[in-house]
Write a structure and sequence with these properties.
The complex is a heterodimer of chains A (about 375) and B (about 325).
Chain A (H helix, E strand, L loop, with lengths): L7 H5 L32 H26 L13 H9 L6 E3 L5 H6 L4 H9 L8 H4 L10 H15 L14 E6 L6 H13 L3 E7 L2 E2 L2 E2 L11 H5 L3 E5 L3 H16 L5 E6 L18 H8 L3 H11 L5 H24 L18 H15 L7
Parallel strand pairs in A: 1-2, 2-3, 3-7, 6-7
Antiparallel strand pairs in A: 4-5
Helix pairs in contact in A: 2-3, 2-12, 2-13, 3-10, 5-13, 7-8
Chain B lengths: L5 E3 L1 H15 L3 E5 L15 H5 L4 E3 L4 H13 L3 E5 L10 H8 L2 H4 L9 E6 L14 H5 L5 E4 L3 H13 L4 E6 L8 E3 L12 E4 L4 E5 L3 H13 L5 E5 L2 E3 L3 H11 L2 E8 L4 H12 L9 E5 L10 H4 L3 H12 L2
Parallel strand pairs in B: 2-3, 2-4, 4-5, 5-7, 6-7, 10-11, 10-13, 13-14
Antiparallel strand pairs in B: 1-8, 6-12, 9-11
Classes of the chains: A alpha/beta (about 375), B alpha/beta (about 325).
Chain lengths: ~375, ~325
């Protein structure tokens, strides 16, 4: 105790590599099922196999896209290797009417929303800024400015409140928003403002932070002196830390947080404690700033291996199942390889489309002048 | 004059326009700092929360990026948020959301997401305020594709333009000359048909020089034209009203007749609206020009302390000086 209250080290304890005692876990890295007093739940065999399948497919999207970047087919790729459980657990906890505000790394959540992964690649190939209809999937466009989407999520949730889509008790109607962001974004003003607005209006939003320990080269210690989830308390809503490499725990915790929101009990902060096994993006070189030993220790906590071990040990899946999933993943990889090359390049005059809902004369004039200019080249045909 | 005519201030015109828009469309929301019980620091939203409730007239936490960022989410959900930035100099914390999100979401989404948002900004000086309360940031927004930027100059336009901006499916930066809020009254006929939003208007006809003004400087330009007429000079005054897109036709038609143009705005001259207007006039009616297009505006300094702000702001004499210079070419 000091004149300013309790010593922070006493309250929070030292930073811990394993996530500390507050880490909510239902499946250990060794594939042992453990129980939790608040967040325990039963999973069907089908659900467990579904999680496994989802994570394998999502990892395939990631490795295939990384390879496509190396082959020059993508300009850049934001890797999610190691974060499959955090994304699939959160993604599968959603109901149809819930709405997702992703970062540019939420490929696993996109998969859970039924979005064709090929649609994600357009942005990274440079043919568009995102070519899916957010209303069709209730999955927003990727937002590249760090943390900006957390405010959009909060505003969208405030809209749900005004639509009477919160706290009615009707499971088909009650809705929530999930805002994805990372540990780096937690330092952004927008994220902190989103917390304040969400708390002030009791908005139905889950702030889902994948703490993958790295913001490009900057470790989590550069963003925070206390465990991130503890910050929520200061904003006036609960925060929890879940093992982000444990798909079962992530699912259980996210589902509970979403239900709180749908019931009208307001925002929750979920810190999914995980690790970015790959680079920030394909332009990054993590060997310049982190030790390979750290990466090796996190390999032992692989999100897919623990589910595989659990399924096998308990006889919940046979060889045929694993072969079938591997085959599906291979097919998906082949489809992405072929599909990405077939994505049509935008045409020069497409530049002028959709700047405004109500087009202006001056922009139409620029369009026409550029069209005439293009036409002026010998052999051109508009 | 119809029976419904009444004399109103700009503040009243905006208030009535907001009220009408909220009555006409239940999706219209008002959000900002102190817009509820207080009615805004300038009382533009006076009485709206009492009549439309706290869900539609939302007092926000004191965070401009938060106001605009949450309004983006509301617009995505199908609402038409009208946000109030309390003073021009406080829009910058929201600059990222406005420029990177509000302006780009329709384009980014290939037109799938509309962003029908109005960002109201009281702008300009002359009220004896402390720093950050007297600025003219319009060029920064007019420079940003995806935004539309308008400035009202009088009570009647205030009433109509705010409704038209709210009805527009694109984001509109709506600039209000705060110095005029409670100044002159004008006759409003609610039964009249307003001009389209993105149009400029000749507010005084003349033959010798074209004055181009918007927002607070329309009044300055009108005074200058009045004074010049006493010296036998006939000045035409155009209230631009829309800054992005620009409505060049009335401007070009006027300059083709007068051969001379002076742009008057409070904003810094360097890279301001005057620079764009001068360039377009030069490109589009070069052979009609008798003199270079001149600009009268704030000096390229930060806004000064209020006891000398009248020296910084373009006034009648500086406009007439520019008129003299353009006529002496």
């Amino acid at each position: 105790m000091t004149a300013f209250g309790p010593d922070l080290a006493e309250v929070f304890g030292p930073s811990q590599q394993d996530g500390g005692p507050e880490l909510i876990q239902l499946l250990t890295p060794e594939g042992e099922r453990v129980h939790h007093p608040e967040f325990d739940m039963d999973f069907t065999e089908e659900q467990l196999r579904g999680f496994y399948r989802d994570m394998v497919m999502v990892r395939r999207i990631d490795t295939e896209s990384t390879a496509l970047q190396r082959h020059g087919e993508l300009g850049i790729w934001a890797q999610l290797l190691g974060q499959e459980a955090a994304q699939v657990g959160a993604g599968r906890a959603l109901r149809t009417q819930d709405f997702v505000f992703p970062t540019y790394r939420e490929h696993g959540v996109a998969w859970c929303r039924g979005l064709d992964p090929l649609k994600l690649l357009g942005l990274f190939r440079g043919v568009d800024h995102g070519d899916w209809d957010p209303e069709e999937y209730n999955f927003g466009l990727y937002t590249i400015v760090i943390g900006a989407q957390t405010l959009h999520a909060t505003g969208y949730a405030m809209g749900m409140q005004r639509d009477g889509a919160v706290g009615t008790g009707d499971p088909e109607r009650d809705s929530a928003v999930i805002a994805h962001f990372g540990d780096g974004a937690s330092s952004q003003g927008d994220v902190n403002e989103a917390f304040i607005f969400a708390a002030s209006y009791n908005a139905p939003v889950v702030f889902f932070c994948q703490n993958n320990q790295w913001a490009i080269s900057e470790p989590i210690e550069r963003q925070t002196r206390i465990p991130l989830y503890q910050r929520a308390l200061g904003f006036g809503f609960p925060g929890v830390r879940v093992d982000g490499n444990d798909v079962l725990a992530t699912y259980a915790v996210t589902q509970a947080a979403l239900q709180r929101a749908r019931d009208g009990q307001g925002p929750t902060f979920v810190e999914a404690y995980t690790y970015r096994m790959g680079a920030h993006t394909t332009t990054d070189d993590p060997t310049r700033y982190r030790l390979s030993g750290d990466v090796e220790s996190w390999k032992l906590k692989d999100p897919i291996a623990r589910v595989e071990a659990y399924l096998k040990r308990n006889g919940l899946a046979d060889t045929a199942f694993f072969e079938e999933v591997a085959g599906e993943a291979a097919d998906l990889g082949a489809r992405l390889r072929d599909g990405v090359k077939a994505l049509p390049d935008p045409q020069p005059l497409d530049i002028f489309g959709n700047v405004y809902a109500e087009e202006t004369d001056e922009l139409r004039q620029q369009h026409d002048e550029f069209a005439a200019y293009l036409d002026s080249f010998e052999g051109s045909h508009a | 004059m119809s029976d419904s005519a009444q004399k109103i201030t700009l503040a009243k015109g905006l208030n009535m326009g907001l009220r009408k828009a909220m009555e006409d469309d239940a999706k219209v929301l008002v959000m900002g700092e102190d817009v509820g019980k207080l009615g805004g620091v300038f009382r533009i939203t006076d009485g709206l929360q009492k009549d439309f409730g706290e869900d539609r007239v939302i007092d926000s936490p004191l965070a401009e990026s938060g106001i605009v960022g949450t309004a983006v989410g509301m617009a995505m959900r199908g609402y038409r948020p009208v946000v109030e930035i309390q003073f021009d100099g406080f829009v910058y914390p929201a600059y990222d959301q406005i420029v990177c999100q509000v302006a780009k979401i329709h384009f980014r989404s290939k037109g799938r997401i509309k962003m029908p948002m109005v960002i109201r900004i009281p702008f300009g000086g002359g009220i004896g305020a402390v720093e950050h309360h007297s600025e003219s940031p319009e060029a920064q927004f007019a420079h940003t594709p995806g935004l539309k930027v308008v400035a009202c100059s009088n009570p009647v336009d205030g009433y109509w333009m705010i409704q038209q901006a709210i009805a527009c499916d694109d984001p509109v930066i709506f600039l209000e000359p705060k110095r005029q809020y409670h100044a002159d009254k004008a006759e409003l006929d609610e039964g009249a048909t307003p001009a389209p939003l993105f149009t400029s208007r000749v507010v005084r006809q003349g033959q010798d020089v074209t004055l181009l003004a918007y927002g607070p400087t329309v009044k300055t330009a009108m005074k200058a034209a009045e004074a010049a007429s006493g010296e036998g000079r006939s000045l035409e005054v155009i209230d631009l009203r829309t800054l992005s897109p620009l409505d060049m036709e009335p401007v070009l038609a006027s300059v083709r007749r007068t051969g001379r143009a002076v742009v008057v705005h409070e904003a810094h001259v360097n890279l301001g609206m005057g620079a764009e207007l001068a360039a377009r006039i030069t490109e589009q009616c070069f052979y009609s020009l008798e003199a270079p297009v001149l600009r009268v505006g704030g000096f390229d300094t930060p806004y000064p302390a209020s006891r000398i702000e009248e020296e910084w702001l373009p006034d009648l004499d500086r406009v007439l000086d520019a008129v003299d210079r353009t006529l002496s070419f």
